[in-house]
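Example for tutorial group B:
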């Protein structure tokens, strides 16, 4: 669920490229170091279609984040996790299949995230998470854009321990 600068009108040649709801794909690794404290790494890719409903037009934000992970055991097999992360991301506006603005920049990304997981088997769990992404991107031809989104997700995970 994007909000902020990218959901407002971005006019290029009198055409609006404002973002609307999209998706996030994420590959995440967490490792508990001692007790309930660990470290979390993730590769995130947000993609938002434009208000034009043209499948060749979309915003993209790709980044890598890392930070501490705090695990709080709840009832039985439920675990609540808090993961404040920071890293770098690059953004682009894809205007058609051959035109892409941005992408060469690497800017700071902030990604606080919470999750609730249920360990349904010895090595497997399902989880749901909620997070926020913020990154201010300096994009040639467009100017500075604040990427902000609230993300909701569900997934399955393999546990090594």
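The residue assignment follows.
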């Amino acid at each position: 669920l994007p909000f902020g600068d990218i959901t407002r009108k971005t006019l290029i040649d009198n055409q609006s490229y404002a973002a609307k709801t999209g998706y996030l794909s994420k590959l995440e690794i967490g490792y508990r170091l001692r007790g309930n404290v660990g470290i979390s790494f993730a590769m995130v890719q947000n993609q938002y279609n434009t208000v034009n409903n043209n499948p060749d037009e979309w915003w993209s934000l790709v980044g890598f984040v890392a930070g501490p992970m705090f695990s709080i055991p709840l009832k039985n097999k439920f675990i609540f996790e808090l993961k404040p992360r920071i890293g770098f991301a690059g953004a682009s506006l894809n205007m058609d299949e051959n035109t892409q603005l941005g992408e060469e920049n690497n800017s700071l990304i902030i990604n606080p995230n919470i999750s609730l997981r249920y360990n349904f088997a010895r090595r497997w769990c399902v989880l749901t998470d909620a997070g926020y992404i913020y990154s201010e991107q300096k994009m040639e031809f467009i100017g500075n854009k604040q990427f902000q989104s609230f993300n909701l997700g569900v997934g399955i995970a393999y546990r090594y321990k």
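The mean pLDDT is 87. Compare this with the pattern of hydrophobic and polar residues in the output above.
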